[in-house]
Each structure stands twice: as structure tokens, then as C-alpha cells.
Design a protein that fits this description.
Elements lengths: L1 H26 L6 H25 L4 H31 L10 H54 L5 H15 L10 H20 L2 H25 L1
């Protein structure tokens, strides 16, 4: 219900603003030549674009999705302000209220350039947002992977009595805990090796073979160090 009310309020606000703008523009005694229609047309489009981008941003589900798209509002707001000023100047040109005049073709070209720059900014921000969200998903996946590994290793600590072995396993757990939280297809091979070694460590702990446990802990430390080093290189 709240979302519907917000939508209705947004539509009502847009409609009122457009209605007031059109009444003012057509009540004032502007000479409606080429410059007037170029300025008026692009200004109307700028207002509709601002409304459309605002609806697109705030209609997206999830706080982070909205947050990443907020810069879109900044770009289109600047364009709207610039276009309204430029449009007013162009509408005044045909009425001889400004002490110079230019062909409407120049205004058409200038407005088109500003609109193109606005669209380029919107596209760039949206593309950047998609990349940020993709990286965020990868980081979440890596966090889950790390926590799962850490839980598996910590579960082994109480299964051993030798203090040296306990310390070695705890060290592995700490190393996993502070591992670089980044994932990449290039790391799939080494991550599979780490998972395999953790499973192997669990089997060896059950057998109580101290030397084998310590050897596997050492191998795991090396694999984790290698994984962290490669993560940092891929940043």
C-alpha cells in the first residue's frame, strides 16, 4: 500500500509540475518561432526524463540497489537545471527579449549535445553499478566460503589432545579467518585444493597421526598464503 501511495504521489507531483510549466509558458506572450519550440521541446523532455529516472531508481527493490543508482538522479538533475535555463533563453530569443538572435539550428545542436552527454553519464553510471553489484555478490560468496572452511577447521580442534597439533589447527583457523575476501574464476583451482586439504585434515585427525596432521597444516598454510597473494594481485 505504501509503495502504491508513493507512486501515486510521484505521478501527481510530476503532472502538477508539467501542468504549471505549460500554463506559464503558454500564458506568457512568447513568440513561438523555431527557437521557442526547440527550447520548449527539450525542456519538456528533460522534465520527463528526470521523472522517469527518479521512478526507475526508487522503484528498485532493496536499499543497496537504490543506493547504487542515486548518482543517476544527480546527473539527470544537473541536466534538467541546465536545460531549463537554456530552454528559457531560447524561448526569449524569438520574442526579441534578448539583444541578439541565432538560428534555431544552433540551439537544436547545442541541446542535442547536452542530452547526449546526459545519456552518456547515465549509461556509464549504470554500467559501473552493475560491476559493483557483481563484485559485491562475489565477495559475499567468498565470505560464505571462508566461514564454512573456518567452521570445518575449528570443529577439529576439540578432537585432538596434543597441544602442538591444537596450536597448528588454531593457526589454520586464524589464517582462514583473515583471508582476503575476494573470489575469481582464476582462484577456483587453488580453492578446490584448499577444500580438499581441509577434508583430508579431518580424516587424518580422526586417525590421530600427529606428524601427518602437522604436515597437512603446513601444506594448508602454504596454500592459503598462495591464495591470498593471488587475490591481492587480482584486485
Amino acid at each position: 500500500m505504501d509503495l502504491t501511495k508513493n507512486k501515486l504521489m510521484a505521478f501527481a507531483t510530476t503532472f502538477i509540475f508539467l501542468a504549471v510549466y505549460n500554463v506559464v509558458v503558454f500564458v506568457l506572450p512568447f513568440t513561438k518561432g523555431g527557437n521557442f519550440w526547440v527550447g520548449y521541446g527539450f525542456s519538456m523532455f528533460a522534465m520527463l526524463l528526470f521523472a522517469a529516472v527518479g521512478f526507475y531508481v526508487f522503484n528498485k527493490p532493496g536499499f543497496m540497489s537504490k543506493f547504487y543508482r542515486i548518482p543517476l538522479i544527480g546527473v539527470v538533475k544537473r541536466y534538467l537545471i541546465l536545460q531549463l535555463i537554456l530552454g528559457l533563453i531560447q524561448m526569449l530569443l524569438d520574442s526579441n527579449l534578448i539583444p541578439f538572435n541565432i538560428g534555431f539550428q544552433y540551439g537544436l545542436a547545442l541541446n542535442t549535445i547536452f542530452l547526449g552527454l546526459c545519456f552518456m553519464g547515465l549509461i556509464t553510471i549504470e554500467a559501473t553499478k552493475d560491476e559493483v553489484e557483481r563484485v559485491e555478490v562475489k565477495i559475499k560468496e567468498k565470505v560464505v566460503y571462508i566461514r564454512s572452511l573456518q567452521a570445518d577447521v575449528e570443529s577439529l580442534i576439540d578432537k585432538v589432545s596434543d597441544e602442538k597439533v591444537k596450536k597448528a589447527i588454531k593457526d589454520i583457523s586464524e589464517t582462514i579467518r583473515y583471508s582476503v575476501k575476494m573470489s575469481s574464476p582464476q582462484l577456483a583451482g587453488i580453492e578446490n585444493k584448499i577444500e580438499g586439504k581441509v577434508m583430508q585434515l579431518g580424516e587424518v585427525v580422526e586417525s590421530g597421526e600427529v606428524e601427518n596432521i602437522l604436515s597437512l597444516c603446513d601444506e594448508l598454510q602454504k596454500l592459503l598464503a598462495d591464495s591470498n597473494r593471488k587475490c591481492k594481485l587480482l584486485k
